[in-house]
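Posted in: Structural Biology > Protein-Ligand Complexes

Title: Requesting predicted complex, beta-D-mannopyranose in pocket

I'd be grateful if someone could produce the C-alpha cells for the following input. Sequence and ligand are given below.
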Amino acid sequence: MIKIVSSDLPNIPWEDKPHNCEGPIWRYSKNPIVKRRPIANVSRVFNSALIPYQGSYIGVFRGETLTGVPYLYLGRSQDGIKIIFEDQPLKVVDALGKEVYFEYAYDPRLIEIENVFYIVFCTALYGPTIGLIKTTDFKHFVMLEHPFLPFNRNGVLFPRKINGEYVMLSRPSDSTHTRFGDIFLSSSPDLLYWGKHRHVMEAGYEWWCNTKIGGGSNPIETSEGWLIFFHGVTTTCNGFVYALGGALLDLEDPSKVLYRSANYLLAPEEDYEVNGFTPNVVFPCSALTDAKTGRIAIYYGGADTNTSLAFTTVNEAVSYIKKYAR
Ligand code: BMA
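-- Reply #1 --
Done. Output follows.
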C-alpha cells in the first residue's frame, strides 16, 4: 500500500471514481467550482491554490481584473468547494512595511512550511519571475526577496526542508509565452539565497509536453517518493494545449526522477477546459491530501477561465505513473 506522508484531512472535497472513467484522475461532477465574474471587477478566477487552515480552507486566487491584469485575491471555504472571496486584491508590504506595488501577479501556489505560509507566484522584476510572500495569520503579508532573476515562472516550494534546506521547482523562461522550458530545482538555507540549481525534467519527453513543462501543485510526500503533478504543453496549428502530467521524485534528492509517466494524466476534454478565454488548458496549482484514505483533490484552472477540481488517490496516481513510465 502506498502511503501519503501528511496529516489526516477527512473532509477534503471528494467523489468516488465513476465506473466509466479510464484515466487515473477524474473530474468533480459539478465543475467548475468558480465560474465567471465571481468577484466585482474580476472577470475570471483560475490557476489558484487552497490549503487547510484552522479547520477549514483558505486560498490565494488568480483574479483577472477587467483591465486584463491579474492580481492575487484571498478566499475562504468551509468545504473546499464554495469559496467566499475578498473583494480587493491582496495587500502586501515589504520588509520596511511599505505597500508593494504589483505590475501583475498570477498563478499562485500556497504552502505551509514549519507553521509559516508562503505564496509563490509570478510577478514582474523588469520581466516575469518568481515572487515570494510570507504570512503567519493571513492578515499581514510580507514580500520576501525574489528567489530568481527574470525570466522564470511556475515556482513550487516543497512542503518541508530537505537536508536542512528549502527546495523549490521552477521553470526558467523568456519574456513572453515561452516556447521552451524544462523544470529545475533550487535550494536555499534561508529563502533568501538560492543555489545548487539542478535540472529535473525536460520538455519533449512525449508529444503532449514537447513544447514546455512547469511545476503544478505542491509536491506530495509519499512512501514511494515526491508525487508531483505538473503541466505540459504541446504546440498545435491552433496554439498551445496544456495537459497535466505526473512523476515521482526521489525523497532525499528530488532532482532525481524515479518515474515519469509518458502518458498525460488529464488533458482538456470537457467543455469548460476546451472552451474559454484560452482554449485547451488544464493547469494544476494545488492539491489537498488525506493520509488515512490516500485521497487527493487537485485544483486546476480550466481554459484560463474557471477553477475546477479533480480527484485521484495516491495508489491510482502512483501506479499509473509507474505503469506508463519509460
Ligand atoms: C501560461 C501562464 C498560465 C496560463 C497558460 C495558458 O504561460 O500564463 O497562467 O494558464 O499560459 O494560457
